[in-house]
Write a structure and sequence with these properties.
Layout (H helix, E strand, L loop, with lengths): L13 H10 L6 H5 L11 H15 L3 E5 L4 H16 L3 E5 L12 H9 L4 E5 L6 H10 L2 E5 L12 E3 L13 H12 L4 H13 L6 H16 L3 H7 L6 H17 L7 H8 L3 H32 L7 E5 L7 H12 L3 E6 L3 E7 L6 H5 L7 E4 L3 E7 L3 H8 L13 E3 L6 H6 L15 E4 L3 E7 L4 E6 L4 E4 L14 E13 L2 E13 L3
Parallel strand pairs: 1-2, 1-3, 3-4, 4-5, 6-7, 11-12, 15-17
Antiparallel strand pairs: 7-8, 8-10, 9-10, 12-16, 13-14, 14-15, 16-17
Helix pairs in contact: 3-7, 4-7, 4-8, 4-12, 5-6, 7-8, 8-9, 8-11, 10-13, 11-13, 12-13, 13-14
Length: 524
């Protein structure tokens, strides 16, 4: 077997065969997904070549460079990637992540003017810039050069001398996140290290990019790197060694995002400092603070989701809810949770004295930006197909709600669960799924359904908050945060169990299990 192939199609167990068959019906293409994802050669696109040359000019001329990032994980990691690499080249490099609440999204005129006053001659954006018309015009007036690196949708290119975007690069780079775009500049310049590639892979998971081309390779290589030499920054945030992209998505990414979300309680620039320092005492201290902020974020978002769920009205094609007590940094999380449970587009808004700060999430097959394009009175608007953020004046609130009632929402295409047998879920079968990883957007691990699961008994945990279902063959299925409607179910009422497979290791003993998302009964 070639070293580039992780497993051959012939050696796949039934579980992996069923899953790969669902994700890639064309068996002649199976080898594409089973091969080890290798990084492509650095992009040779004119945009990359010219922007990299400008960075090298800055190094040769001893210029001061300011990196302007975004406050989510992609922007924070991209800022750390670029700042760390430029500093290694001897370039005096500063960075700035805006305050989500006080300043809002994107590059602001105030930031540009302050950077100019401090002697910065070159400004580089990361994960933002395509919509920063006023700030870019200000930079031009002040005589500052600007490199815009971004991956968000744009209609016309920004007014910057250098613009680097996946749309201007080769097809294999079409799904890059903002941090990965910045990293590609460094790869062409010959300045990228394994650490920058690791952070780019982490950011790709955080921004939920389609796992094809270079993005797939970045995520895979990051996970391989963590297996052999786990970076202390990620290890402390994960409180262990992440095994796959799911671990990164749930254990690391939310903690990075928390600082940007709760900018009234924390400073997202500290997250950049966290990833830039190699002093373990500082890493440990900053990691502790980041985890504490995330605990607060989790508490607040859980409360908001409950409040929003109680106010959802049946029949509305787009859920639109607002509240003056909702934290604008958390509404996106709550909207995502509500979207997942309802299968409908969700817009949640934090209402202030002068306007609404809104966050939108949509299910698979429904494009946020397409739904919003028919309304033209947004104060600010940005986003992509599955997520958008925007603000509205209070005077336009009612017209916007009326507009939402007129839009045609495509039917969300949620894939049916994949039917399997309990006997298929063995430890070797579940672990073989690693040969298909990374899973993610465009190549998502499907939910599995066991029909008539023959549940032997159930056991409630944490005072009934969670439940473990144990089947007659010994397979366990865990239902975390079970709804009240399931708490009185007996084993003979269970008609099907739906969830995703995993291997649970406890006290050095490994057991196959299903992490449940739904429980079906004989009454349904």
């Amino acid at each position: 077997m070639s070293e580039s192939v992780r497993v051959t199609p012939e050696s796949l167990l039934p579980l992996a065969c069923k899953i790969l068959g669902r994700l890639e019906p064309d068996q002649s293409r199976w080898m594409t997904w089973l091969e080890t994802p290798e990084l492509h050669s650095p992009s040779q696109a004119d945009a990359v070549v010219e922007a990299a040359a400008r960075l090298k000019q800055a190094a040769a001329s001893h210029e001061k460079v300011i990196v302007a990032g975004d406050y989510d994980a992609d922007g924070i990691l991209g800022t750390a990637i670029l700042t760390g690499a430029l500093r290694r080249q001897g370039i005096e490099t500063g960075f700035y992540i805006p305050d989500r609440i006080r300043e809002g999204y994107g590059l602001q005129e105030k930031t540009v003017r302050l950077a100019h006053e401090k002697g910065y001659s070159l400004l580089v954006t990361v994960d933002n810039g395509v919509r920063a018309e006023e700030a870019l015009a200000c930079a031009a007036d002040l005589g500052m050069d600007v490199i815009v690196t971004d991956h968000h949708q744009f209609e016309t290119p920004p007014q910057a001398a250098w613009f680097v975007h996946p749309a201007l690069m080769e097809p294999e780079f079409s799904t890059l996140c903002g941090a990965a775009v910045a990293c590609e500049l460094l790869r062409y310049a010959g300045w990228a290290t394994d650490y920058e590639l690791l952070l780019a892979g982490l950011a790709s998971v955080g921004d939920q990019m389609a796992v094809t081309g270079q993005t797939r390779a970045l995520i895979f290589q990051a996970l391989e790197q963590l297996k052999t030499d786990c970076d202390p920054h990620i290890r402390l945030l994960a409180q262990g060694i992440p095994e796959n992209e799911t671990d990164l998505s749930f254990q690391v990414i939310p903690k990075i995002n928390a600082l940007g979300r709760l900018s009234d309680l924390a400073n997202a620039n500290n997250a950049v400092r966290f990833f830039l320092t190699d002093d373990f005492r500082q890493i440990s201290s900053l990691a502790q603070g980041i985890c504490q902020i995330n605990d607060r974020r989790r508490e607040m978002s859980g409360r908001m989701v409950q409040e929003a769920q109680s106010r959802v009205r049946p029949g509305s094609t787009v859920i639109f809810l607002e509240d003056p007590t909702w934290h604008e940094g958390i509404i996106g999380l709550a909207a995502g949770s509500l979207c997942e449970t309802t299968g409908r587009p969700v817009i949640l808004a934090a209402r202030g004295q002068s306007g609404l700060k809104c966050s939108m999430r949509s299910p698979e097959g429904v494009d946020c930006m397409d739904l919003l394009k028919g309304f033209d009175r947004f104060v600010t608007l940005g986003g992509h197909s599955r997520a958008a953020g925007f603000s509205l004046d209070l005077k336009d609130r009612d017209d916007f709600e009326a507009y939402l009632k007129t839009v045609t929402v495509p039917h969300a295409q949620k894939a049916d669960p994949l039917d399997v047998k309990a006997a298929d879920l063995t430890i070797p079968a579940i672990r073989q799924l690693d040969a298909l990883r990374p899973f993610g957007t465009g190549f998502e691990l499907p939910e599995l359904r066991i029909q008539d699961p023959a549940v032997a008994f159930v056991r409630d945990l944490s005072a009934g908050r969670h439940r473990r279902y144990v089947m007659e063959n010994g397979l366990e299925a865990m239902r975390f945060n079970q709804p009240d409607s399931e708490k009185a179910l007996s084993p003979d009422q269970i008609r099907w169990l739906t969830g995703k497979p995993s291997v649970n290791v406890w006290m050095q003993t490994a057991r196959p299990q299903l992490i449940l998302s739904a429980v079906g009964t004989s009454q349904e």
